[in-house]
Structure formats: C-alpha cells, structure tokens
Amino acid sequence: MIRPHSFSDIFYPRDCETLKRELQNLFDTVYSSLETRRFLGMIEGFVQKKRILSFIVPHGAYKYSGVVSAFAYALIKTLDCNNFIILSSDHKGTSPGISITDDDYWSTPLGEVKVNNSMRSDLLRKSAKDYISLDSLTLELDYTIETQLPFIQFLQIENLSILPVIQKRQDIETSIRLGRLLSSIIPSGERVILISTSNLTHYLDYNECYKIDNQILSTTISMNLNSFYQTVGNYAHIICGYGCIASTIEFSRMIGNSDAIVLKHLTSGDVDGNKSSVVGYASLVMV
After folding, report:
1. Is 94 within 8 Å of 205 (Cβ atoms)?
2. Which CDD domains match (predicted)?
C-alpha cells in the first residue's frame, strides 16, 4: 500500500518543480550567511562522529517554518544516513496511543519513500501487546510527518527508508518508554537518524511567544526530563508535541548523546510581520 500525499498545496507545493525550487531557496537562505556556515560547520564535526543522532524540527507551512527545518536538514545532508525514524504527535486524536504506519511506501510530489519494514517489525515485536498499533488511518489524517519527507528526498539519499510514528500520549512515562523502545530497534552497525517534529508556542503575542519558547528550549537542552515536564506543565496546552520532544530526549540519552544544540529559532511573526498571534518554531540537534 502507498500513502498518498494529502497535504501538498496546503503546507508545501504540489508541483514537483515548484517544490524543488522552494526547497533550494530554503537551503540557499541557510547558506547565505557566513556566520551560519561557520556555525553549522562547527557542529558538523560533532555530528559526523555519531552513528545515531536525533533532531527536532517544526512542521508549519514551508513559508513560515521551512527555513528553520532547513538548518537541521543542512546538517543531515552532510551525513551518510539512509534510515530515518520520524516521530510526531497526534493532531487529530484518532490514535489509541502510539501508532505506526501499515503502508509500504509514502509518496510526495518528489516520488515514493520506502517504509523500513525491518525496524517496524522489530518495534512491534519488542513492544507490549496493544502498546503500539498498526494504524494507517491516524498517519493518513496527520500532516506533520508528510511535511518532512520532501526535505529528506531533496537530499538525494540512496536506498532511503523511513519509519513514521505518531505519539498521542504525551506523558512522561509514555515518552520514556517510547524513547527507549525506539533506541532498541537501531540495526547493528547502521546509521539512523530520529527526526522528531513539534511546533512550539501557539497563538500568543510575539514577545510572550519568545519568552515561553526560550523557557522550553532552555529546559530541552538541559536533557533533564523531570525539569522539562515541570516547565512544560504550564504550557502543555499550547505546545503540540512536547511528549515527542521528551521521547527524543530519552532516546538520545539511551544512545549516549547527552548534549542538545539549538540550530534556529524564530516565530511566524518574524516572517509575515503579524506579531499579535504567532507560532514558535525551532530546530535542534542532540549529540
């Protein structure tokens, strides 16, 4: 079965050539600054030493959050990796808890991407009965993982495979359990990247959004889950994927990556000038 691209022309262009041009423009924006090139070059030395890595990226429309995501994918471009786990929260509320795709391929205007059946089977085998569901409906209704695929495809990775995962339950116990499960299915000797996607503060004014976002980012880079949940507790209703961020922290800790670096942070107000009601976007790497 092939999951169709259902959200092109909403979050990113449907036309293949238009999409390629937009992605190229996003990467060109990242590389246009000498300061940014030096910054990413410094981090590149750290990430290339790691076999397993995790990134956090946003999932807004490319117009708003695309350049933030491009900071992460610019680093991923430097790595020899073709296995990706992509984790997001449940935006439609249809998942029974943790859902993974039952499809064999996912499509975008740039082509089809194969689902990693080996990691999927391993995840189902290692999880408790009914903890993780094969649930194509939830993953078909949700747009957030689909929006990551054109970025990955644009990197022209050979033998690319993905494992899409939706996390509905956002509590600390679920996040710890899921992070550990995901770390346990990494194929021996292979490079794997976990991409976890979440936007930050939603629909507050510009200054308040930055204030709260900075608190969230500060506690995220501490890599301390108790501290993270204490901070997020006040803002859980305005951050869509905090549990996914927590799962990524635990995943990273389990594989021995104990540091996090903010790559880029901005808001929709920085893009369109409307600062009365904004959404925060950030990209991070954990090394």
Report:
1. no
2. MEMO_like (cd07361)
Buried b (16+ CB within 10 A) or exposed e, 154-175: bbebeebbbbbbbbbbbebebb
**Pick from 69, 63, 287: nearest CA to 198:** 69
Is 160 within 8 Å of 152 (Cβ atoms)? yes
Q: What element of type H or E holds 110? A: none
CA distance 3 to 191: 25
Measured distance CA(195)–CA(180) in Å, rounded: 15
What are 120's two structure tokens?
């999927």
Q: Enumerate the β-bridge partners of residue 194.
A: 54, 85
pTM: 0.97
Q: In whole angstroms, give the CA distance from residue 166 to residue 127.
A: 15
**Confidence band, pLDDT 50/70/90 cuts, at residue 130:** confident
Return the CATH fold of 2-286. Protocatechuate 4,5-dioxygenase; Chain B (3.40.830)
Q: Are 225 and 175 in contact (CB under 8 A)?
A: yes
Residue 9 pLDDT class (50, 70, 90 cuts) = very high
